[in-house]
Amino acid sequence: MNDNVNSDSKYYNNPLTRPHIKWGKLEEANNFAHKVKLFRQHALSEDDFRRFRLQHGAYGSRLQMGYSMVRIKIPGGEITPEQLEKIASLSEAFSIGSAHVSTRQNIQLHWVQLEDVSEVMRGLAEVGLTTREACGNTVRNVMCSHFAGVCAKEEFDASPYSKAIAQFFLRNPMCQNLPRKFKVNFSCCNEHGLVRIADIGLVPMINENGVKGFRIYLGGGLGAASFLGHLVEPFTPENRLLSTCLATIRLFDRHGNRENMARNRMRYFVHEIGWDIFQRMVFKERSIVEMTMAGSTLESFRVLLEGHQREVFKIQNKHLELPILNTQNTSTNDSFNRWMNTNIVHQKQQGYFTAFVTLGAGDITANQLRVLAASIRELSIERTARNTPQQNFAIRYINGKDVLNFYTRLADAGLTNPGALTIASAVGCTGTTSCNLAITNSHRLAKEIEYKFLELQYDIDEDLRDSTIKISGCPNSCGQHEIATIGFFGGASRIENSMAPTYTMLFSGSTGEQGELGKTIMRVPAKRVIDILRKIIEIYRQEKSGNETLKHWIRRIVNGAGTGNIRGVEDIKRLLSPIAQLDPIDLDPESYRDYGTDIRFSAKTARGECAA
Amino acid sequence: MNTKKLQSTNSHAKIPLICNTDTVQALILNNSARIVDVRKSEEYLQSHIRSAASLPLSQILEKEPSGIIEILKNLGVTDTLPVVIYDDTFGALAARVAWTLQYVGHSNTSLLEVTYSQWKRMGLETESNNNKFPKVEHAMRINHKIQADASYVDLAKEQENKFLVDSRERLNFLTEHIPNAKNIPYTMLRSDNNILRKPEEIRRLIENRGMSTDSEYITYCGSAGTLSGLAFFALKSAGIKNVKLYSKSFREWKLLGKVKEEFKDANYWDLSAD
Ligand code: SF4
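^ thats the input. predicted complex w/ iron/sulfur cluster below
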């Protein structure tokens, strides 16, 4: 495993260009090119090639198997300026000149010709990145809250653990042919992070004896059928982290359903045999793992972890400066203040700030990536960025006195849209822009919502701030619609003899340790989603009691505990239904076309390789 | 580098298709080549590479070959004098001019491997003189082998061993293209500092696609043959012998109402952050 660490290139020897891990391997790029040739010459079967391709992070593109979506893993979400710049160049050379931040801290390049995927991998390897096991039946990108290390509520920084786990399982023989994909998410505290919708979710904690460890949740996940993870025990000390993960993966490998593609995620197995039984199996398996695990395995994990712990950025001398708000330049003041208000948070390190870069459904151009990289290099003293499951970038450790400078530099590149931490920053999976399984253009809808909400200034409304909107283009949940305050997943409805793009709307999903899954409310035509959202907000503004936010009000409605005119879901549905009603196609042709196209809607999908 | 060879004035040495800055500096020093700047004349007058002549792209685009030959004569370019062309538009404009000169019979035409901005960044010599050159003679020898028109492309698109290369960016290609064309966007061909990647890299990109370098290649782009002009030189530099430019490109193809391949089943434009 040590060959992942360090190398001879100047990039790795420069202490400034952290991190030092080399996730990528040049020989894998060459091998990929070779396999593509074999496949094209029919010397490799379609099934074998597909498995190989997915193992190496390339999905087939929508109804065009000659193109791929290349998924770049960003373990823990940490990415350096040099890596961002390389992705910029690769997106121009081989993709569409834009890159796309996913909801699981990957960065995706779309519409790459299959024959060029190896070139992308080659470029990535030069800066230490990999696509290996980004798709397929493997341990996917290991996530870590983008607040880890700077969150005021965290007990310790989970980032080094997330990267050590990622490194331990990457290319690990035991993870090369799991029954299905396997997701691991670390959070910083009980609030941030997606710990209950992963196969393994981990919240760092220190117990009463001062021992570091985690609250570990198992068997969660979103999809056509979703489940929340279960807490395995009140406290798992850090020296049992590896064995608990190993035991879980071994159980899944042994018992997971390899027959039925639709039901082979670990959460189904846990659900079918019941949590109590699974929990006992985990404990038993963990004892076996701990008894039989070679000392060298534990030792190698410890070495990885310590390597990552050494890498953790710490400020040397504490600055105690407050943010300096520019009051001189009045022309930019308004937009700057708005941005400050919606895109900046204090860190636990006093005087330092985390700035969020709002992206439309995660899209960023090559030039914007370069500007971002240069700004990070100069103004984030940590010199890295993190990508977030809200499809934005978080730039941390900006000194208070540099915040305005940071803003000004990004503004020229169109990277200072406000609203990153508000309802305006809608999440949308790729949908029909590139996914084989998509029914609707969820990607564009998320962008449309963002434009509209910023125009309506919903981002500055404190009452809407903690609400989220997330959209998937089909029931598969890559857009994480089930953990949104208001979520949508795409489908098709027949009205008389015509098909219209529609979404199923869900209310009151949430993240964090107390997270809940959204409840299905009703179907909404694609072209009416924005109207419906505006109506919901209008009703809320009339109905809310006291200081309650939209999020709290919606929860109350879902629980049937509303007061006033809207007591429960049925009441609000009655008010929304007229908006959701469509006229026949000849009276309203617009509603029978999805966003981004002028042709009539029809639901076209191809074999899924599961873009989740 | 052997500069002696380049010094002989009567019959000039053939220079590499893509000239690096060392070669060009030596050529300038020995006054043994014509350096041609294809940017707008205002830009030329502000500053340009030392000893360069001005020949903006717009002056040659619609010209008959005889008019191009007149221009060469007025720039003091004899039949064998090396010509090195540069621009500040990632090489595409320079490539279109260079192809035109090759087409009318000046085969000793090359591209400078960097743009003018890069030349300046490297601290190499510039000046702002409006250089003029004594008129010389130049013969016309049309090189039909490097040119393709619509009817040629129409036939070629169905023929094995001929590759039609579309140099436009991916999303334009996906939207519509000439049937059977292969997409090699111009953005794929350049490197961080140079207008083109190294020949062996371009070869690798072609070979990755399973395309034989012994085949005939025809490049085209959206309108004026600039992006595809750059592709023409890229393929040539990679050692492909038989390369043609469809200089009227996809704009003419569409005007002629010829058949296109389209792809409407995905909303890929919505992925662009522009
Ligand atoms: S599978 Fe469905 S949810 Fe996932 S990216 Fe495709 S359309 Fe979106």
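The first helix of chain B runs from residue 4 to 7.
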